[in-house]
Write a structure and sequence with these properties.
globular; seven-stranded antiparallel sheet; Small Protein B, Chain: A; alpha+beta; cytoplasm; RNA binding
């Protein structure tokens, strides 16, 4: 019998603001190295990646500033640090391409979501992003509003 919290493709944390603040040019999936209590805490769905980012440290890719709360049912000696840097697992070919892309001006790696795949492994969806300016954000909002109004008009007429 499968539990509801281990359903395939279950999203543990999502950065909803990322697509508003950045132009996402490309996405990729990366594995993440977690402690046991971190996995349990992610399954409860209280993690936050809103202020987090991915970057290079000692030639490896890490996720910085991601908040995964302590797992309350674990003892106090087995707890993890809530905002520690977590290593991301990508192929070496992808790693070189990522490092080259973030060296370009204005490009950054933004985590879009943390989820569990169909095998139950925690994965991070990363986006290679370029920051939006204030006018770009207004333009995006205007286009979204127009699409919503257009859908309402089409629904009303037909």
């Amino acid at each position: 019998m499968a539990r509801a919290d281990s359903a395939p493709g279950r999203i543990a944390a999502q950065n909803r603001r990322a697509r508003f603040d950045y132009f996402i040019e490309d996405t990729l999936e990366a594995g993440i190295v977690l402690a046991g209590t971190e996995v349990k805490s992610l399954r409860s769905g209280r993690a936050s990646i809103n202020e987090s980012y991915a970057g290079e440290q000692n030639g490896e890719l890490f996720l910085f500033n991601a908040y995964i709360p302590e797992y309350q049912l674990a003892g106090q000696f087995f707890q993890h640090e809530v905002r520690r840097p977590r290593k991301l697992l990508v192929r070496s070919r992808q790693l070189g391409r990522l490092f080259a892309s973030i060296q370009r001006e204005g490009m950054t790696l933004v985590p879009l979501s943390i989820y569990f795949n169909d095998r139950g492994l925690a994965k991070v969806e990363l986006g290679i992003a370029k920051g939006k300016k204030k006018g770009d954000k207004r333009e995006t909002e205007k286009a979204r509003d127009w699409q919503r109004d257009k859908a309402r008009l089409m629904r009303a007429k037909g």
